[in-house]
Amino acid sequence: MARSIPAFSALALVLFSASSSSQAPSTDSNNHKTKPQPADCWEIHSLGTLGGTFSDATDVNDSGVVVGNSETEPRILDPADPPVPLLRAFISAPNGGAITEILTPGFFFGTAVAVNNVGQVVGSSTIGRSFPISYFTDPGGGNVQTTLAFADARDINNVGQTSWDINFPFFRSVIGPNEQPDFTGTDLIDVVVPAVEDPLNTPFESVALNDAGQVAVNAAGFAYRWSSFEGAIALTPDAQGSGATGMNEAGQVVGTLQSDGLTQAFVTKRHNTSLTLLGKPGDGNQPTGINGLGQIVGTRPVGSEVHGYVTPPILVQRSIDLDTLNEVTRDGWSKLRPVAINKRGQIAGTGSIDGHDRAFLLSPRSILAFVPDQNGKHAKCFRLP
Does residue 265 sit within a domain? Predict the structure, then answer.
């Protein structure tokens, strides 16, 4: 338990002040004792849409800036055709504020996949109706610049690097400087997985890139962690197959593996690749993200439904069911699908409200928000009257 103290202390410093959540009795101006009153532990905020019926979140940075994709209002593309809604990328203001459209190349299609801590965004788009192109932006989502053609931007770190999956003329996962000028990519570094027998024809999927230059990558049905200084390390050498879904700055990777025909979630230890298995085989746990404190977000089946969850710092075997939070159900949300969590414990994802999918930001208002009971619910939070 002693190892948990630094993580909880760090979390307390970066979350909103916990003074309003103190359970200690106080006194009023007449020196009468007052009792603490129940208060919200969480706040969930809808990010809305770009005028259409749905939106989804894909990433959040440490300032609470969320990026994602949204349907737009119907737009006229050809005077001879009726207006049609489009799928476009968006970026929010800090702490899940108002969203604005990222003006990606072309105007038919655009997606945002990741944002770093200065607000630079990477994603993919099309020029014309079908020519695929990746892009990155200045802080705040402006000044969109195209990067690699026939490639999907996958992640961006805080030290000027982006990772891409190239799909033509052969499959490659690469990292390089954000402002990559052409397809030949002389400054690109290949993510090499020696165990893959035919790298030219084997699809690669780079999942996450951290500031140390480590890449979580899936290739030929297995999850690896790669870097230029350690090479490719197989994370699940004894499994029948595996897939990484996220990674943090300490190189911890989350994902799922298959063993004896059943799927089980896993997380690697800090700064090494030994595994901790999460939950039980076949329980449907699907981790989607992890922050620097080792907090994991993801989804799992609950009866006939799928609920979102978050773990406390370090205590990866315990979790809080986000769909059962009073603040979530009270505001009419359900089917939460978290995708990312920042160092402040803010969670970005997509949920259902009023029958439509909406991107959301779920923010803790107290350190007690991350103290689960045995039933997967958070402890009660308090304020003084």
Answer: yes
pLDDT digits (tens, 9 = 90+) for 48-83: 999 999 999 999 999 999 999 999 988 877 788 888
Evaluate whether 317 touches 278 at the Cβ level (below 8 Å).
yes
Q: Comparing 16 with 131, which gets the higher pLDDT?
A: 131
**CA-closest candidate to residue 112, choices 158, 60, 75:** 60
What are the backbone angles phi and psi of residue 232, rounded to the nearest 5°? -95, 125
d(CA 197, CA 369): 47
Q: Note the helical H segments in the chain.
A: 4-14, 326-330
Q: Are residues 313 and 381 in the same domain?
A: yes
Q: Are residues 172 and 72 in the same domain?
A: yes
Least Cα distance to 374 among 292, 315, 323 occurs for 315
Q: Are 246 and 208 in contact (CB under 8 A)?
A: yes
**Residue located via tokens 């893959």:** 196
Distance, in Å, from the CA atom of 191 to the CA atom of 162, rounded to the nearest integer, reads 12
Task: Single out the residue of 276, 243, 268, 271 nearest to residue 257, CA to CA.
Answer: 243
pLDDT at 76: 79
What's the CA gap between 93 and 64, in Å, rounded?
Answer: 8
Cα 157 from Cα 162, distance rounded (Å):
7
CA dist., res. 299 & res. 282, Å (int): 13
* Of 96-110, 208-222, 337-351, the least confident: 96-110
129 part of a folded domain:
yes
Which residue shows structure tokens 């949204």?
70
Per-residue pLDDT of 10-23, as tens digits, reads 444 333 333 333 34
**Domain total for the chain?**
3
pTM more than 0.85: yes
Q: Which residue has the higher pLDDT, 70 or 131?
A: 70
Neighbours of 24 (CB within 10 A): 7
In a domain, 27, yes or no: yes
3-state SS, residue 310: strand
Identify whether the C-beta of residue 59 lies closer than 8 Å to the C-beta of residue 67. Answer: yes
How far apart are alpha carbons 33 and 27 in whole angstroms?
Answer: 4
Kindly state the percentage of the chain with pLDDT values over 90.
62
Q: Is 302 helix (H, G, I), strand (E, B) or coil?
A: strand
Question: Is residue 75 within 8 Å of residue 86, measured between CB atoms?
Answer: yes
